[in-house]
Amino acid sequence: MKPIVPIVLKSERLILRPPLPEDAPHVECFVSDRRVAEMTALIPHPYPRGGALDWIHLSERQWLEGVKATFAICLRDSGELVGCASYFNDSERDNEIGYWIGVPHWGRGYATEALTRLLRYVFEDLGGRRVDTYHFAHNPASGRVMEKAGMKFVSKTPLGASRDGVAYDDVRYSISAEEWASRYSLR
Q: Domain named N-acetyltransferase: which ranges (predicted)?
């Protein structure tokens, strides 16, 4: 697989780019909302004041180390930040994608569009062989996003994931490079 290096990705309505320090207030506002945080395994709630800037600096280091590609998801026409997505390529979460969208932007298809573009990056630019991800069972909307992006249901694991020390059922999805190519080479 090719190394992860900072890159800007574009789709029909979105730009996915590395997060910048000036994004911190918007990120912090969105992830401070319990409805966003509780759907993720990694975003703390309450979110610490100033935590977004620390997270952005961490994501810069992870880009340079080649272990994680984190993108700010922005509207192509205005540049407005609507969420974030990451591709993990480390020993803990190898070949996994995670994402969130701010509540004011839910229901507009941005998560599906961003996930689809990120999968394309992993398979076509990095030469990835497989991508896996999961959602908590209490967040079926995320499963619909994964399905619309071409991912296939793999399994449901009772109490297979946790957040803040509480175990939840997880629902796992996956897609291989071959499945990706067969789905998208026809377009």
A: 14-178
d(CA 92, CA 54): 21
Kindly report, residue by residue over 77-101, the tens digit of the pLDDT. Answer: 999 999 999 999 876 666 899 999 9
CB of 162 closer than 8 Å to CB of 168: yes
Q: What is the pLDDT of residues 43-57, one digit of tens each?
A: 999 999 999 999 999
For residues 46-79, one letter each, b for 16 or more C-beta atoms within 10 angstroms of the residue's C-beta and e for the rest, the string is ebeeebbbebbeebbebbeeebbbbbbbbeeeee
**What residue type is assigned to position 93 of the chain?**
R
* pLDDT tops 60 at residue 186: no
> How many folded domains does the chain comprise?
1
Mean pLDDT of the chain: 93
Provide the whole-model pTM: 0.94
Can you give the CATH number for the domain in which 83 is found? 3.40.630.30
Whether residue 96 is contained in a domain is answered as: yes
Name beta bridge partners: 123.
none
